[in-house]
Amino acid sequence: MRDGILQRNFVQLFGQGEKTMILAHGFGCDQTMWRYIVPAFTNEYRVVVFDFVGSGRSDWSAYSPERYRDLNGYAQDVLDICACLNIRDAVYVGHSAAAMIGMLASIRQPDYFEKLVLIGPSPRYIDERPDYIGGFDAADIEGLLQLMQDNHQGWAQYLAPLVMSNADRPELARELGESFCAMDPDIAQRFARAVFLADNRADLKHVARPALILQCAQDVIAPLEVGAYVHHRLPNSTLRFMEATGHCPHLSHPDETIGLIQDYLRHGA
Fold it and tell me: What are the residue boundaries of the AB hydrolase-1 domain, all occurrences included (predicted)?
């Protein structure tokens, strides 16, 4: 059972620290996106990286449309990994969709987690004006999902530069686009629906663990209004505005990302 779960999610461990840090990638990505972050924490932490089922080098045959119909199935992946590795009081670092996934996991099994670090979190991508600004209207999301269905490669080439930003470094958008394209189209569409149609706003008040929110500038996926919303409704949260632009600061601005996480872990709010 233990080996099966670790193989299912292609779990890898780095470092010899007594504490544990879990790095969870966002939609369309895999654990390689953390390659600039891992070395900064291996002296103090046992760093756990993994791929969600259907991403990277996970066991794609383990994908179940029923299990992964919403983000709770991915949260169960996190909990399974924690149980397998006997993890307690971990620092969980989640990017984008994995931020919400980690929050859901922490609600169900709070003892597994000590602190959460949420990079570009969004509990709801669709606007419900005037009360909530998520960054997209419903037609935007449906159009994106339709493009995925009609033209998987075209969708990746369209979305990657918007997500990554940093137009002066096109290699970053190219890497992200290749990561999008590497996913099975059917799994990618189902994962996208689980992410972009989710509404986890009501879950925020149930998160018991302290959290750091890292808010990038010029983030079209999780704009400033979303970061502020999460901060105001997430108990015991700290909001830090980054100089980094785009939605993937762990790739585009790793030094700033590392510095803010280290400062939070050492000094708190």
Answer: 22-258
Q: Is 152 a catalytic residue?
A: no
Among the listed residues 231, 247, 250, 253, the single catalytic one is 247
Question: Which is catalytic among the residues 30, 80, 95, 96?
Answer: 96
Q: How does pLDDT run across 110-132, given as a tens digit for each residue?
A: 999 999 999 999 999 999 999 99
Q: Which two tokens stand for residue 20?
A: 């544990």
Pick the CATH number of 2-124+200-267 from 3.40.50.11270, 3.40.190.10, 3.30.870.10, 3.40.50.1820: 3.40.50.1820
Given the residues 30, 106, 219, 231, select the one marked as catalytic: 219
pTM: 0.97
d(Cα 94, Cα 81) in Å, to the nearest integer?
15
pLDDT tens column, 209-245: 999 999 999 999 999 999 999 999 999 999 999 999 9
Q: Is 59 a catalytic residue?
A: no
Query: Where do the structural domains in the chain lie, given as residue ranges?
Result: 2-124+200-267
Rg (CA), the chain: 17
